[in-house]
Amino acid sequence: MTAPVHTVCVFCASSEAVSAEHRATASELGRGIALRGWGLMYGGGNIGLMGEVARACLDAGGHVTGVIPHLLAD
């Protein structure tokens, strides 16, 4: 799979303590990115809003790249 020409970078909460409205908006964003043929670059987490955006993008067939800074990887 080749990387898309346009990539959107999204960094957001990894906390699970977010409202359903914010989760829905994050999912809508991820899906919209994929449906436009753009890629997503994000904070690499699978929980919270980060996870919502990434899952929605992947579920819609999008290209996702996670970036975890060395400081946070441990």
UniProtKB/TrEMBL annotation:
InterPro entries the UniProt entry points to: LDcluster4
Domain of life: Bacteria
GO cellular component terms, A-Z: cytosol
Gene Ontology biological-process entries: cytokinin biosynthetic process
Single annotated GO MF: hydrolase activity, hydrolyzing N-glycosyl compounds
Pfam families cross-referenced by the UniProt entry: LDcluster4 (PF18306)
Family: Belongs to the LOG family.
Name of this chain's protein: Lysine decarboxylase family
Organism: uncultured Chloroflexota bacterium
Source lineage: Bacteria, Bacillati, Chloroflexota, environmental samples
